[in-house]
Structures are given as structure tokens and as C-alpha cells.
Amino acid sequence: MSAEATNPEAHPEARPELRRRGRTRLDLRRLGRAALLGPTSRDRLPDAIGHVAEAHRAHHPDADLSILRRAYLLAETSHRGQMRKSGEPYITHPLAVTLILAELGAETTTLTASLLHDTVEDTEVTLDQVRAEFGDEVCFIVDGVTKVEKIDYGAAAEPETFRKMLVATGNDVRVMSIKLADRLHNMRTLGVMRPEKQARIAKVTRDVLIPLAERLGVQALKTELEDLVFAILHPEEYESTRALIAAHAGERDPLPGIADSVRAVLRDAGIAAEVQVRPRHFVSVHRIARTRGELRGSDFGRILVLVGENADCYAVLGELHTCFTPVVSEFKDFIATPKFNLYQSLHTAVATPEGYVAEVIVRTRQMHRVAEAGVVALGNPYATATPDAAADPDEERVDPTRPGWLSRLLDWQQSAPDPDTFWSVLRAELAQDREITVFRADGGTLGLPAGASCIDAAYAQHGDAAHGCIGARVNGRLASLSSPLSDGDTVQLLLAQDASSGPAAEWLDHARTPAARIAISSWLESHPDRAMSTTSAARAPLSVVGARGGGGNAVADLPDATVRLAGCCTPVPPDAVAGFLVRGGAVTVHRIHCAAVAQMRAVGRTSVAVHWRATADCRVTLLAESFGRPHLLADLTEAIAREGVEVVSATVEPPVEQRVRHTYTLQLPDATGLPALMRAMRDVPGVYDVSRA
What we know:
- There is one protein chain.
- This protein is of the alpha+beta class.
- Strands 1, 2, 3, 4, 5 and 6 form a six-stranded mixed beta sheet that branches. A five-stranded mixed beta sheet has the order 8-7-11-9-10, covered by helices on one side.
- β15 (577-581) and β16 form a beta hairpin.
């Protein structure tokens, strides 16, 4: 089944695999009439599922088809007499769903469960019967699909429906594979329903099922679902896109000629490769038209190059970039850095001498299979599990193919406070179309959605202990918790020692993952007094002023002049200094390299010679930058006092992105103690820098 051509009747060239195998599209109405009458003998059964068996054997030549025959017999007899709203016998539905999965390469257990997926819900067949006849694995999957289907799809029921679907998917990804194929066939036959019901089902499909298909890597289902939803929710744009594609069909298509040139280049280079032209599906054409405006012939499809080994992919890329003009901005390497949904390919674009630009995808045949079918192509993820792994349907099984995003969703869905929160956060999470991997300081990794911040990393690594996070180092450099992370970053999270520390309300503005947002919101709701204090309006700086002032031990060579140490550079002995006469007859003292010295001279201020007294005491202003936490001011003041230093004044600015700036004017008994004082202040937890003003 092609991931790029979702209308086989309109684009028969988009299904080369069907043409090569000599198979026609399954005539469900004809099979439905035959199923309604019932098989006359067991020998007739292969006629009804012949297309399924043929598609299955194409991917699994050694598959045992006897279990499929038995599953079809049970499904056909149990559904006999039931009709779909379209007027077809009901058995046509599980047959169609199973054919979709067979063409994707699903293994026998999945196809067996697909044939039976509605029997327990809609007929007298019980789970015990399914288990006795087909084993625990089939029973487990059928039970998972049944739990999903038992919930109505009304607007009020949607959150709980998809919560159950999410749990079922986490327990076995094959449940979601069947559900996606089930929805695809239902969308294909949606025309018999009222327009308002069509729109409601299409919106749910767009908001949840299509993103889930994307994240599970099942592009073949995702692209056709996109086109079907597009036709229902945006009929005018769909028709204009259809007209655009129809108009292109009557024009000369440059892509076959470009594909021939690519074949010749690779043949001359000795690279064995299969080159195909892949038409774009409707939504893809619509997106390209909105982005590029008027489309050219090469915009209606892409060239796909299939090779045998990973190294061949890069060899093909080298030949293409050598023999054609590459469009460098279009190059993407998803082999070295696969997408979150298992997708791997090289993407590039080349310009031809005729002026056409063709997009080219290069991948191995195995990559192609996974790109089309995603997790469906991985077979049975529990093949090595213990025989009793499926004995308890409520017990979660470890799935080696489970993507990181699915594990995250399963973790937070249990703590979602209400269905509405679950629904809104689920849609926001599924809207993320890319995942990044960041490295922890201890060598582990964290999978996060693109755009995640240090806050998200903190909760992903530490859970509720992240409430006490006060900062982070990203790639060795200090960063605020709101800093966004990029793929491949190394993040070290700094936690406060104080157990009473908690998050600020502003963290919600920078948290992207459901786990982080729910944990922060829960903490703020349980600490309303702290939440109010963190969301209050900006406060004026907190100031503590001592009784002393003046110029410290600086002396000006001007009788009776008042001497002031400049706050911009806070000179202390034995700094080289310069003095300038200012209004009121006072002399301000600056370090000789202070920027204010040049400004004073430029405006013609009178220079006054200054020197230091013989006494060793001095006054200095220090800036301490830290991550906000309770008791920080008290701890800093205590550290200063332990060094025997007097606080003349202190100013604490309001927090900005969890960062707090303290300004201290200090009287030191001896200027030589300044380095030790600054080290002591830096050792206070949460303080990351101390400098002279």
C-alpha cells in the first residue's frame, strides 16, 4: 500500500506493487454478497480471503494460512445477517481492515485478531472462545480493540475514549494498528452518514488518530486518512486541489525523464538501485501549492531511490550531488538521526539543466518498508516474551518497539486530573511533529518533544523532585530553566538542597511536556500561598542599607572635598584610580579602566589626583547572580558575615525567569580578603556568579 497515493482509482500508477503482483483491488461488494449467502464448504473459504492470503504471503512467504481460514470462518458465521449502514454485509468490514494490514506486512497474529476484532463486541462470541481457539496473543489483542470500541464517540466521551485507546496501545501497539486500519475503512465508507456526523468523525480523526498514525510511523494509513479528512472538512480546497492534479495529468511530466537520468547515473557508477516516481497525495500537493504558489511539473511528485545497504544510500547521494546541481537547503539526513517514529531516509533536491527541481528520497528497502508501515512492519514485538506474557490482560507488557513519546503519554495519563485536561494536553502533545534527544550529565538520554525546555528535562529525569530545580547547565554553560533544548544537547540539572523549594507559576509558560505541566499545576494548586507569591506583580527591589557611606579610604588631593567611590566600578586598594570633580564640589573615584573615565574626560570634568590611605580596610560593591530559592538572601548574608565583612547596603531585584540578582556594598577590614569573600559567596547553593560591580 503506497504512502503517497491515497486514491488508487485516480492514480493507478501510484500502486506499482499491486500492478507488479497482478492483483486487482478487492471487490468488497461482490465478496459481501458471497459472505451473506455463506460458504457452502470449507473449500470455498480461500475465495473470500484470497486477496488477504495473497497480500500476506507477499510479505511472509512461509506464513501458515490455516489460522486465517479458521478466523474468517468464525467471523463470517458470527456476523452473518448483520449489515453495515452502507448496505454491505458486515463481514466486508473485518475483511477490508485485514486486507489493509496485510498489504502493510502485518504478521499472522495481527491479521487473525483483525478478522475477529468486532466479534466479541457485536456477536455472541466470547473472549474465552477466542482464547481457546486462537491462543492468548490473539485474545489479548481482540480484548484491547474491544475495550476501545465499547466507548461511544460522542463529544463528551472522546477524552475517556482516547485515554483507553492510549492505554491499549501502550500494552500492545498492534491494537492501535488495527484501530487505525478500522478507522481508515470507516472513513472510506463515511458517505452514507449525515454530513454533521461525517464532520465530527473527521475532526476526531484529524486531531488524534492521524497524529497517532504519524507517531507510529504508519505513513500509508496516515496519508490516506489525511486526504479523506481533507475532502470532508475542506471540500472546496479539496476540489481545487483535485482540479490542479487533473490539469497536471494532461501535461508533460518531467519526473519520469529525471528518473531515467538518475537511473543512468547510478548504473554508470555501478550502484544497484530501483528508481521510482512517487506522486504526492492531495494534502501534500495542497501544502506545496500554498508554500510555493504556482506549481511546476516536478512539484507533483518525488523520486524514490531504493538500495540494499545503508552505505549505498550515501553513495547514491554522492553521485546525485556530483552529476546534478544540489539544492543544499533541502538536504536532510534521517539515517544518522532517525525521526521519532522510526523513519529513516536521505532527503535532497537536485536541479536539472532544464531548470526543474526534483526532490529525491534515498533509502534501503528495509527503511522503505518501515517508512510505509511503521510499527506494523516490525512484526510481533513479543515474539521472545515468555509464554504467559499475555495471561493478564490488565498487566502492562514491556514493548521493545514502544517509542519514547508513547511511554511519556502513558506515564502522565494516569495523573491527569480530569478528562478535559487529558484531552487538551493529549492534543497538544500529538501536535508536536518532532522529537529530540538530549544527554544527561550521568551519560543517560532523555527523549523530549521539539521545543522542550530545561524544565521539561528536569521533570523527565527527576519527576516530582524537579520542583526543587534551581537551574541548569546546557553544554557546560549556565542556562535558565526556560532555555529551549536542541537535539544532542547535554543538560545538567541543578537541584536545591531545601526540600521546601517549589516551582514558580512562570514555569508553566515554558513547560511543553504533559508530565511537567501537570506536576507544576498540581504543586501550585496544593500550595496556593506560594503560587500567589510567585505570580504577584513585579515588586520593587528589596533594599537593606547600613549606616556608613562616603569614599572609604580613598583620599583626594583637594582640601575639604567629599570623596565618593563610584558605584559603576567600585574601586578598592590597590586598584589604579582616577578622580573627577562633579557637582556640589564632590570627587568621584573610578578605576582607571572604567568606561566612565573616558566619558568624564570627554565632557571636560576636572581631573583630581587621588590615592589610598595607608589603612587596609576598603569598601566594595559585589553583584551576586543566582537561581531563586527560599532563604537565599539569609544564606548569602551569613556567608558574608563568616568572612568578617560588614554589609553597608544590599539590594535584591525581583526574580526574572527564576534568576535573582543581589547587589551588596560591603566594608572589608582588609582588601586582601576580597578573593576569599567572593569564593565564599559563590559556594552558596544556587549562586552561579559573583563579580565586582
